[in-house]
Amino acid sequence: MIRIFNIFFKFKAYFLLIILIIVSSFLLFQNNNIQIKQIRSNTILAIGYLQENFSDFFNMIWIPHILSIAEENNVLRKQNVILSEELSRLREASLENIRLKKLLEFKQSSKYNLVTAKVVGKSINLIRNYLTLNVGSDDGVNINMPVISEKGLVGKVISVSDKYCIVEILKSKNFKASVIIERSRVPGILNWNGGENLIISEVAKNLDIRVGDIVKTSEYSSIFPDNIEVGTVVAVSYDTGNLFQKVEVKSYVDFSTIEETFVLLYKPDSSRVILEKLIYEKD
Amino acid sequence: MVIDYLKYIGIAIILFLIQKTFIPLISIQMISPDLPILLVIYIGVRRGQISGLIFGFFFGLLIDIFSSTFLGLSALSYLIAGFIAGYFHDENRPAEILQSYFYIFIMFLVIIISNLIYYTIFIQGNNNLPYGYLLLKFVLGSSFYTLIFGVIFMFSLSKKIVKSVGEV
User: Fold this and answer.
1) Partner-chain residue, chosen from A13, A40, A64, that has the shortest CB–CB distance to B65
2) Which of A172, A231, A271, B74 is the most exposed, fewest CB within 10 Å of its CB?
3) pLDDT band, residue B70 (cuts 50/70/90)
4) d(Cα B81, Cα B94) in Å, to the nearest integer?
């Protein structure tokens, strides 16, 4: 017994080391104990309070770690730029979302086959004005197909490649479309003379057209299906001695801001086209 | 002797508060010095292995309770630090050791071993961390940073150490 005691006394430090290592290891395995977690959450709260107040006090009397503050400034500046860019992208995405939702509603409600197209190029403010769309023959697009937006008639396809097409818009010198006044069913030919608005020509003076009347495509057209909205009558004027009245139409479509369109996969009845062609040639 | 231990407890509390409040402000790339271990090493060299063991264990436990890492981890690393430091205790010439360059070596050795134990267990407990790189970064980084403070304390408090050793 005394021998054991002597051994213990001789190596007491080592015995104590082993005991404390066992205790520490036991504590390490008790980290998930609920009571220990509760105790620690309270103590960490106290330390956090202490640290926060000390940090505020210390920053008031002296700014330590100037290098880290300078570095922090650089990091914050970079973050600011990144966040500004992201904000701008998010705003853009939000606006695009609103536009696309409208387009989707329009597409779903339309009775025609539509190909959604993005405007990738514009040539506006010239005599012959065009849009370039990112759809082509691969998407089923052909020459003379009508192009519309959710607001109204845009133009017609005049040239097609595999992936792209060129659209001649309403505000183009050569563009013509057969239209009708929705209210009074007065027909006319829509074109553009280089001004701010479109013009309906060859409308007799005695025909009933008023400012505010809605203009749509008529069934007389061999290119455009009927009932596509074009715009609103904004002015009606008469020249003395002239048999016709001048009707100005404001297009629903704003060509300077247009971004998304639809190509109508519409082909007129081929027998009608052939017949009309024969008659015109005969004349 | 009891008064000495009360002084050690007082210094431990001050070091603990400094470690929790001021030290985070001077960290570099998340590496900060470990001031409490310097006291554990001092007590180990000054008073022996048993004192170093017991003091290291309880001081480490106090730090564990008030931190968000594993409970028992600092207690384990500090008790081993106290034990190793106590190995270099010499009753006949305590002041000589505490003021010598050999004491710097003792500090470095103990700090390295203590940090190795601490970060090995710590990183093992967090499986998604890159083991080798972090071990090297934190063990060596923290050790050198702590050693700098150890050397500063050693040279700035050498006269007080000699005086206190002389009184005992």
Assistant:
1) A40
2) A271
3) confident
4) 18
Helix locations, A30-65, DSSP H: 34-61
- CB contacts of A46 in chain B (<8 Å) are 66
Using CB atoms within 10 Å of the CB of residue B150, give its burial: 0 to 12 exposed, 13 to 18 middle, 19+ buried: buried
Q: Are A258 and A149 in contact (CB under 8 A)?
A: yes
For residue A227, the one-letter residue type is N
- The fraction of chain A above a pLDDT of 70, given in percent, is 78
Domains A114-169 and A177-253 share a fold: yes
Q: Are A200 and A190 in contact (CB under 8 A)?
A: yes
The residue type at B65 = I
Show the tokens assigned to B20: 């929790």
Question: What topology is assigned to A114-169 in CATH?
Answer: Thrombin, subunit H (2.40.10)
**The complex's ipTM?**
0.84
Beta strands A187-191 and A198-204, pairing class:
antiparallel
Task: List the 83-112 stretch of A: residues with Cβ below 8 A of B.
Answer: none
Query: Is-contact A145 A101, C-beta < 8 A?
Result: no
- The confidence score (pLDDT) of residue B111 equals 93
Nearest to A152 by CA among A130, A125, A127, A179: A179
In the block, tokens 């937006």 appear at A149
C-alpha span between B110 and B52 (Å, rounded): 12
> What's CA A263's distance to the chain center, in Å?
18
CB contact under 8 A, A16 and B22: no
pLDDT in tens, A21-48: 999 988 888 776 666 666 666 666 666 6
The CB density around residue A223, as the number of other CB atoms within 10 Å, is 18
Q: How far lies A175's CA from each of A110, A165, A186, B71, in Å?
A: 24, 17, 20, 82
Cα B40 to Cα B65: distance, rounded to the nearest angstrom: 18
A190: which strand partners? A177, A200
- Whether residues B79 and A31 touch (CB distance < 8 A) is answered with no
pTM: 0.49
Tokens representing A209? 């057209």
- Nearest C-alpha in A relative to B65: A40
Name the token pair of A32. Answer: 């998930």
Q: Where are the domains of chain A?
A: 19-109, 114-169, 177-253
DSSP secondary structure string for all residues of A71-102 = HHHHHHHHHHHHHHHHHHHHHHHHHHHHHHHH
- Distance between CA atoms of residues A133 and A156, nearest Å: 11
Class of CATH domain A177-253: mainly beta
